[in-house]
């Protein structure tokens, strides 16, 4: 291209398109400044409102990323770049990503709802998805439990939030129920008195709640007693073991016999 043709075309481009590019650059730098300012404001606002620490980075990152994308699109429109091909690419990518990550998005949504609605918290003991354990970690995509036998259980949040969750810690106490079978030849009042004595002497139960000992059923070979006491959820298994062992020991010492298996 000859110089005498280049300069007129450059002059024409500067007159017709130059202002758009200048305006786009100005908008871009103003937008960058505004997004940085808004990020600091959002961070302070979430801290003031005590948004869960696991959610703050996500919400902040999602908001800022969306603003950057909108800013770039706005600048491209000001400059006059054609957006059709970019729209097609973004749409195709979004559909493919959505299909590939549908399960991941479900787990993520479950994690957000768990952190917001708090059906359980760290150190709570829960029963869910056939697992019984203490919550040691709540992540965005999964929740980690430690069972009584020290197994680590990782449950996807999508399944966890959409099923029944039993929180055995929230109320601060848990009822311990078990049965004892006593033969008909025994003095039932004596057997019940021994059971009540063991319950009242136990240091593993909560004595501010009334315990209950009584006959729950009559079988062909025995009388079935039920024992209902309240315990600290964290001490549930230990309390059950100690109380049952003490019951058996004291009943045997008091001459109370038990039906033989297969009688």
Describe the structure.
With 263 residues, this protein is of the alpha+beta class. Helices cover 53% and strands 19% of the residues. The protein is built from 8 helices and 8 strands. It has helices spanning 3-16, 18-48, 56-79, 84-100, 102-117, 157-161, 188-201, 236-253, and strands at 125-128, 131-138, 142-147, 152-156, 166-167, 174-182, 212-218, 223-231. A hairpin with a 4-residue loop joins strand 7 and strand 8. The N and C termini lie far apart (111 Å).
What features would you highlight for this structure?
single chain; 263 residues; alpha+beta; five-stranded antiparallel beta sheet; three-stranded antiparallel beta sheet; 8 helices
> How are the strands of the largest sheet arranged?
4-3-2-1-5
- Characterize the largest beta sheet: strand count, sense, and whether it forms a barrel: 5 strands, antiparallel
Rg for CA atoms: 34 Å
Order of helices and strands: HHHHHEEEEHEEHEEH
Overall structural class, as computed from helix and strand content, comes to: alpha+beta
Number of strands: 8
- The share of residues in extended strands comes to 15-25%
- Mean pLDDT across every amino acid position: 81
Terminus-to-terminus distance: 111 Å
The helicity comes to 40-55%
pLDDT < 50 runs, ≥5 residues: none
**Helix tally?**
8
| Shape label | rod-shaped
């Amino acid at each position: 291209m000859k110089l005498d043709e280049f300069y007129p075309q450059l002059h024409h481009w500067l007159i017709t398109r130059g202002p758009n590019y200048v305006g786009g650059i100005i908008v871009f730098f103003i937008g960058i400044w505004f997004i940085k300012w808004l990020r600091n404001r959002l961070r302070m606002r979430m801290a003031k409102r005590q948004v869960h620490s696991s959610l703050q980075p996500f919400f902040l990152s999602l908001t800022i990323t969306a603003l950057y994308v909108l800013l770039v699109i706005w600048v491209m429109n000001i400059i006059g770049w054609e957006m059709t091909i970019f729209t097609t690419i973004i749409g195709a990518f979004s559909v493919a990503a959505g299909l590939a990550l549908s399960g991941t998005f479900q787990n993520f949504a479950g994690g957000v709802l768990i952190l917001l609605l708090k059906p359980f918290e760290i150190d709570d003991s829960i029963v869910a998805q056939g697992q019984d354990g203490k919550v040691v970690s709540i992540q965005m995509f999964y929740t980690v439990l430690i069972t009584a036998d020290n197994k680590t259980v990782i449950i996807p949040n999508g399944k966890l939030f959409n099923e029944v969750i039993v929180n055995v810690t929230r109320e601060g106490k848990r009822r311990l129920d078990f049965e004892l079978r006593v033969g008909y030849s025994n003095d039932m009042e004596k057997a019940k008195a021994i059971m009540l004595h063991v319950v009242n002497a136990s240091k593993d139960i909560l004595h501010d709640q009334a315990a209950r000992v009584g006959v729950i059923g009559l079988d062909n070979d025995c009388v079935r007693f039920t024992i209902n006491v309240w315990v600290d959820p964290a001490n549930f298994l230990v309390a059950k073991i100690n109380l049952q062992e003490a019951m058996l020991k004291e009943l045997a010492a008091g001459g109370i016999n038990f039906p033989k298996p297969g009688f």
